[in-house]
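Following up on my earlier thread - several people asked me to post the actual chain instead of describing it. Fair enough. Here it is, all 176 residues.
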Amino acid sequence: MPLTTNGLPYPADTAAPNVPADIQALAEALDPQAAPTIWAHFQRTTNQTIQSSVLTPVVGTLLTASGVGYNASSGAMTIGTNGLYLLTGWITWLVNATGIRAAYWYRGNPVGSAARLSRAMAAGSAAGQVTTTNTHVIRCVAGDVLWFQAYQTVGSPLDLDGTLQSTGFEVARISP
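Reply from S.P.:
Thanks for posting it. Predicted structure:
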């Protein structure tokens, strides 16, 4: 990974981002005693239908993980180690001109009583797909349950794009 003039790492323009590894490299540059990063990367590999006006957990395929439990049927992620975590989620919605699109991070179990951590919203577009990205930093304790959720108000079901890393989420511990 190349370095800035201050000696901090950053991804090369030609390299595909590797968020957990990039975060770990930055953490180690800032604090050589940084503990190894605990992280997980999830991605949709097929479209997922989201009903109108229904908050729905985004369920992905676990690609890589270290220290984060995952329930593939419910989308629940369970933190295994105390620390400060960076949560990043992105949703690419299929084309539809009406309604809003939202991406949420929640903490708690069950999902119906979970506390909302953050929300990102976008309007629909007839011109092309809309991507909603939501990033949040939170202190977690072992056993915390996190959910990345989608919401839309089209008035009928709308699909999340499940191709080419269009929809996914990552959880990375950035500090003990």
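The mean pLDDT is 80. That should answer part of your original question.
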